[in-house]
Amino acid sequence: MRKYRAVIFDLDGVICSTDHYHYLAWKQIADQEQIPFDETINNRLRGVSRMRSLEIILEQADRSYSEEEKQELAEQKNEIYRSLLVKMTSKDVAESMQDLLKQLRSAGVKIAIGSSSRNTKLILRQIGLGDTFDAISDGTDITHSKPHPEVFLIAAKKLGLPAGDCLVVEDAKAGIEAATAGGFDSAGIGEAATASGVTYSLRDIGELSSIVIP
Ligand code: B16
Ligand code: MG
Question: pTM of the predicted model, to two decimals?
Fold first, then answer.
């Protein structure tokens, strides 16, 4: 018998590389505010909510920001980010990922999205995967972002499966932490491959099919 009946994919950094667009948009905001911002700080933003991301960036600022100012900066960032997203097409999904999704579907394994992003549905439409997933749990469904397990628990609920039947795939340490807290096994790529508690460390997303469909 198979160990997993479903795979829950993170979106940014796993299905597609929107993480780079997040970086470009935040960089514009940081430059405008004259706040130092680099790839190391950017790595701390993976998987966490838009407002939490802004708070992490503002740790480097030499003054404090009011709630109103924070709301405005978060909205500005989202506008820049969404203007970058419209350039995305199905070519932004790696062939290895397209193949994996097809293999899982034809083997009868359910597939879902578990993303902190409130732009999930727009991104999925842009990259031609708007109707591909059996369930979508995203930033519009949750009150706590990763490392809280809520986004994955809602995905499992929408799939009608217990956490133990689902494997979470993540690129963020916060995402692996969320999966573990929710009782899910996890597969990590990139920096998430070295996260504590990760079940499978992947060098390449192609390695996932032999784990799920042995
Ligand atoms: P938005 P994921 C996360 O998506 C990103 O990794 C994180 O950097 C971003 O701040 C968060 O979505 C919110 O995104 O501003 O579009 O609502 O990795 O959980 O798919
Ligand atoms: Mg991610």
Answer: 0.94
